[in-house]
Write a structure and sequence with these properties.
The protein is an alpha/beta fold and 433 residues long. The chain contains 13 helices and 14 strands. Strand 1 and strand 2 form a beta hairpin. 48% of the residues are buried.
């Protein structure tokens, strides 16, 4: 891809603020940052110190010659939480790195499960927390998380829970969805029963260390999940980013984001995500695609991935926006065609109007409260909120998404020319829970 396009010509300039040259105290915001090792990234400064953190980009993070991770850990012992895939692929390299830098460490690997979301439960939270406490942690310890969105959410919850949040933690995201969403938010979460993210809090890591080399070994589904989250930010907050993924999205997935353009897209998505943070007490446009998608995941017993559920909600929200006279017909087709081309799900059988309305909107509607439902505005890159709509309006939008759907599961075929085709309709039995 690098021979095809010059990334500097795409207009994806930095959105972060530059620190004041005179050293004046920074006000809350997102700032460009360079650490003592020369790595670039961002400093997210919040009024609440527990929600302030840094995101640092570093190549070959696990190479013994790279001292970035060691410099952030210092003399502290590393209590490592490992995703089972990361343990299999990188476990030996992780331990060799710590040994090379003389860093004391102990490891806990999550059990391998057919449905990874099963690890984000209260039971597993208790198991991991018990293990951490069994290590007799003190001020010379730090939790280090290597994994995707599930482990990032779970590990942050453990750090927030154990010893009343006195243990700091470092996040090292290893999937695209973790890099552009889970790891760069101070939110922590676990599932409670059938309620996805039913528990959690806000406790930011000390630092997020991002190495895109981890993406070389992630599977196709994980790449699409990440692109779904990138699209979420682009559609309601960054028109230029959408232009780029519209043109190069298939190639980004095919190359596992392993190019200068791939890293640029990931970084621009992170910056857009961080700068779109809502003010306290105001609705967040970053919730686009996240109002009822977690219900869809739960109803499918988590056979529906997070990225697939978010993509389905984005599609339905786009139809709803168009029906409300906001999004014009050309942009609606442009969005739907992009999702089709990339291969993100267009519908799932658990997407039922009654379930969604009853669980998410009915109570607020009956009490006359605003939904603050985020959706595309009058143009791509500008999001807005729909204060109220009826059950019938929701049903129409869902019906439009169903009509668009195909019964054939689509997978992007690497190394072949891409033709315009429709994305998969995913079939799941409805949960009886």
């Amino acid at each position: 891809m690098q021979g095809i396009v010059n990334p500097s010509s795409l207009g994806l300039e930095t959105l972060a603020k530059q620190p004041e040259a005179d050293g004046r105290e920074l006000v809350p915001g997102v700032y460009s940052y360079v650490d003592t090792q020369g790595n670039s990234g961002w400093h997210i400064l919040d009024r609440d110190p527990r929600q302030s953190f840094k995101v640092i980009r570093s190549c070959s993070l696990l190479s013994p010659a790279n001292s970035t991770l060691a410099s952030y850990l210092g003399c502290r012992r590393a209590l490592c939480l490992l995703d089972p895939k990361i343990e299999k692929l990188h476990g030996q390299r992780i331990r060799a790195y710590f040994t090379a830098h003389g860093i004391a460490h102990v490891d806990f690997c999550l059990p391998r499960r057919a449905i990874p979301e099963s690890n984000k439960s209260f039971q597993v939270l208790g198991n991991v927390s018990t293990w951490v406490l069994d290590q007799d942690p003190d001020g010379d310890d730090v939790i280090v998380i290597f994994g995707g969105g599930v482990l990032i959410d779970l590990g942050g919850s453990v750090a927030d829970f154990v010893r009343r949040g006195l243990l700091p933690y470092v996040s090292i995201p290893t999937t695209p969805i973790a890099m552009v969403d889970a790891a760069v938010s101070p939110k922590t979460a676990v599932n409670i029963g059938s309620h996805k993210n039913g528990g959690g809090g806000r406790y930011a890591p000390e630092v997020v260390l991002m190495d895109t080399a981890f993406l070389r070994t992630v599977d196709h589904s994980a790449l699409l999940d990440g692109l779904s989250e990138i699209a979420k930010i682009a559609i309601v907050g960054d028109a230029r980013l959408f232009d780029v993924i519209e043109e190069f999205g298939v190639e980004l997935v095919r190359r596992h984001f392993q190019s200068k353009l791939g890293e640029l897209v990931l970084c621009r998505s992170i910056e857009s995500f961080l700068t779109l943070k809502a003010q306290l007490g105001e609705p967040s446009i970053r919730a686009f695609g996240h109002m009822f998608s977690k219900l869809l995941e739960s109803l499918s017993n988590y056979k529906l991935t997070h990225g697939e559920a978010v993509a389905i909600e984005q599609r339905i929200a786009a139809f709803l926006s168009a029906d409300e006279g906001l999004l014009n017909a050309n942009d609606l087709e442009r969005l739907q065609s992009w999702f089709d081309q990339i291969g993100l799900a267009s519908f799932a059988d658990v997407c039922d109007t009654s379930q969604i309305w009853d669980h998410v909107f009915a109570k607020a509607y009956q009490k006359g409260r605003s939904f603050d439902f985020p959706l595309p505005g009058r143009q791509i890159g500008k999001g807005t909120f729909l204060k109220r709509f009826t059950r019938q309006q929701l049903a129409v939008a869902i019906s439009q998404a169903r009509k668009r759907a195909s019964d054939t599961i689509l997978r992007v075929k690497t190394g072949r020319s891409q033709k315009r085709r429709r994305a998969p309709r995913l079939r799941f039995l409805r949960s009886t829970a």
